[in-house]
Design brief:
The structure is a single chain. The chain has one domain: Irregular (Factor Xa Inhibitor). It has a three-stranded antiparallel sheet with strand order 1-2-3. It is elongated and about 50 Å long. The chain is an alpha+beta fold. It is 39% helix and 12% strand.
């Protein structure tokens, strides 16, 4: 059976932390930022860790 290919779209969206967990960026931070409160844009800067079924699906796409 051939090697599994990494899903390139997923590879660009998820990063693996030092402890092996998956991080993803948050939505709503691309454009139209002027009318969003600064507090909100600062909060959206932070990455969040995947959990549960999302983590499982992302790992499968990444071939982990």
């Amino acid at each position: 059976m051939p090697k599994m290919k990494t899903h390139r779209g997923a590879a660009k969206r998820f990063k693996v932390t030092g402890t092996g967990r998956l991080k993803r960026g948050r939505a709503f931070r691309n454009h139209l930022l002027e009318k969003k409160p600064t507090k909100r844009t600062r909060r959206l800067k932070r990455d969040t860790v995947l959990e549960g079924a999302d983590d499982k699906r992302a790992r499968r796409l990444l071939g982990m």
